[in-house]
Amino acid sequence: MLSELSGQAITRNEISRWESEKRLPTPFWQQHLAVSLGVEAARIKRAVSSARAKRRKERAGGVQRREFIGAMAALAIPLARTDQPTDRRIGRSDIAELRRRTARLRRLDNIMGGSETFPVYRAEADFTQRLIRESSHTEDIERELLALLAEQQQQAGWAAFDYGQHALAEQLYEDSRQNAEDARALDLAGNALAYAAYQQTTKQQSGTALATDSYEVARRVATPKVSALLLERKAWAHASASEAAEADRALNLAREALNSLSDRPEPDWVFWVDAAEIDIMAGRCWTELRRPLRAVPVLERVLAGFDDTHARDKSLYLTWLATSYLQAGEVEQAAATLGHAADLAAGVTSVRPAHRIETVARGLARHRSIPAVADLLTRLKV
């Protein structure tokens, strides 16, 4: 019977998640459960509240685990190689080692904020620049070094953006684009434009022109994951500009690109792009477009399997879920979700989660008469 509540489809997997408390029923489903089971809605609500309190205790341990992992990662960061000679002959084996190192360092972004990673990423880019100027190498090797430098500058730009240094990030993205073009690495040139477009949207500027250019620049050489990444960022730019049809079209193209067959190797700088990433962006787009009935299901589903150790990203994504709950009138669920985001953001060295949490909290402020909201706003000092 639970799978056919009031004509609404509920999968067995969803019921299993409720039973195991991996996910808790939203107020909408709490009401249906009460009707189906013939009990007062207040009983269902109390049961969910009790489970949520247990989760908070478990999260405290999760935060400790995340901080431990971050500390271990920090210890593993190789020291900047300022003392290593750059006036030497560079060959393909050197390029391969530089790429492996860059790939390892890129993973730090999963669990650490920009203020911690920026010095490392900037030092790597500076070292590569010195190699280009001071080492001896062939023209082909120089192009590979320039492409690597473009990668490193994008990573450094992202870290600068993550801790609020926008002017520095813009300059790094522009330098990256120029180096990528000099290296004839059009996929990287397109990605630099996509980063710049994304940054524009955070400053309440339209990023649609840059986002469109980013895809057009890279389209002929882009692998499936690169195409998917540029298209999902294009979707976000359109959503931020309230262009729903264009956002939907770009999201569909991103999914098609991701699922297309190709025997070309993907660059490491898109290692994280997968179906879940496209779904997260879709949920964010539909939230931005005030379509909570489309946003909530996809965000709930993907975030249920998202590891809390990726605290910055999960806290950010939860703020969009909280916003969609608020748009749908599920105020208490919005407050609970925003509280989870705040728990995860504690100690994260990134300005973006704090900004998003404050923005959503201000939207909740008009519901301060609701005890759960009042408690959260007091905790957040809003």
Describe the structure.
The protein has 382 residues and is mostly helical. The chain has 17 helices and no strands. It has helices spanning 12-20, 27-37, 41-76, 92-106, 114-134, 139-162, 166-182, 186-202, 208-218, 224-240, 244-259, 275-288, 292-304, 311-327, 331-345, 351-364, 371-380. Helix 4 (92-106) runs parallel beside helix 6 (139-162), helix 8 (186-202) runs antiparallel to helix 9 and helix 14 runs antiparallel to helix 15. The longest helix is centred in the first third of the chain and has 36 residues, at 41-76. It is elongated.
Secondary-structure map with pairings?
Layout: H1 12-20, H2 27-37, H3 41-76, H4 92-106, H5 114-134, H6 139-162, H7 166-182, H8 186-202, H9 208-218, H10 224-240, H11 244-259, H12 275-288, H13 292-304, H14 311-327, H15 331-345, H16 351-364, H17 371-380
Q: Brief overview, please?
A:
By secondary structure, this protein is mainly α. It has helices at residues 12-20, 27-37, 41-76, 92-106, 114-134, 139-162, 166-182, 186-202, 208-218, 224-240, 244-259, 275-288, 292-304, 311-327, 331-345, 351-364, 371-380. Helix 10 packs parallel to helix 12 and helix 15 (331-345) runs parallel beside helix 17 (371-380).
Uncertain runs: 1-9
Q: Beta fraction of the residues?
A: under 5%
State the shape. elongated
Average pLDDT confidence is 86
Tally of separate helices: 17
Annotation keywords:
elongated; 17 helices; single chain; mainly alpha
